[in-house]
Design a protein that fits this description.
Layout lengths: L17 E5 L2 E5 L5 E5 L5 E11 L1 H13 L7 E4 L6 E7 L6 E3 L5 E9 L3
Antiparallel strand pairs: 1-4, 2-3, 4-8, 5-6, 6-8, 7-8
Length: 119
């Protein structure tokens, strides 16, 4: 199983960081006005927006190679949530595109979205 790479500091992401939790509920309304609700997912799904800056060339290359190895959204990998340390084994990239900028020796930047996939 592939695992999302970490920075040289051991961190998964930098501040500011963003994490979202998504629920999916379906509501059916009947002719008499009553409703029935049920979950579309078994559990909530997580999403992380990862902004990385001031990366050196090796760190930026590491994230580019990981993105290529995952073929964008095609492959799954494990991701450890930096907020609570929970490992989510079934995650994928949120896009098939990755933009990386290397403006200087210690000035690499990229942003990635990681999505937890339903089971």
């Amino acid at each position: 199983m592939n695992t999302f790479p970490t920075l040289k500091t051991g961190a998964v992401m930098q501040y500011p960081a963003q994490r979202d939790v998504a629920f999916s509920t379906t509501a059916l309304e009947f002719v008499d006005g009553s409703e029935q609700r049920f979950r579309s997912y078994q559990a909530p799904l997580h999403r992380w927006e990862i902004q990385l800056s001031l990366l050196d060339q090796a760190e930026l290359h590491q994230f580019q190679e990981f993105f290529r190895a995952m073929a964008g959204r095609a492959e799954n990998f494990a991701f450890t949530d930096p907020w609570d340390g929970t490992s989510y084994p079934n995650c994928s990239m949120g896009s098939d595109n990755m933009t990386a900028v290397l403006a200087g020796e210690w000035n690499g930047e990229t942003s990635l979205t990681v999505l937890e996939n339903g089971s």
